[in-house]
Amino acid sequence: MPHIFDASRKDLLEDPERWKGTSISTMLRKAGLRRGKNMVDMGCGTGFFSLPASEIVGFRGLVCSIDLQLKMLGFLKSKLKTSAGVNVEPVLSSILDAPLHTASVDLVLLVDTLHEVERKNALLKEAWRILKPKGRIAVVDWKKARMDIGPPWEERLSLDEVLHLLAQAGFGKPSAFQAGHYHYGVTAVKPDSSSPQG
Asked: Considering the entire predicted model, what is its pTM?
């Protein structure tokens, strides 16, 4: 059964070894993030991706960082105190019921989050709701392989499983991108005018 990452182990989230073979900024750009865009980092943890994302979107954009754990957001807020000009808004909330307007976001980012959520279809449906037409969802998650780093093998999702879930939710135009040695990345697009599946 999926589990929520323990906030007391936050140092693992900050370990650069997890992202060996790539750079966070490069990954975010491959996911479709651009200057002036609004992004939601769902299950943001310590904000490891939120801060680099803020540098990309600039002062005309916004990064909304959502997490269910108050401790995680506390770590992010501590970072923000020493990061001038960062356009990041921490939000304490379930990612299944985000306090955001419908069709208000350009990019939804799920990093090492989808495999942790039991109601995966509900999460993708919520991502669909908050995305603008032609908005993108980007999923970065652990490769379905046995390794000494990351979650247990049985909790991981293969790329094919994620592609199937995205298609079920109504997303189209999937495109995979390189996300380091241990992860895969894939983006998909919310069609201009249609309804979510399921």
From this structure: 0.89
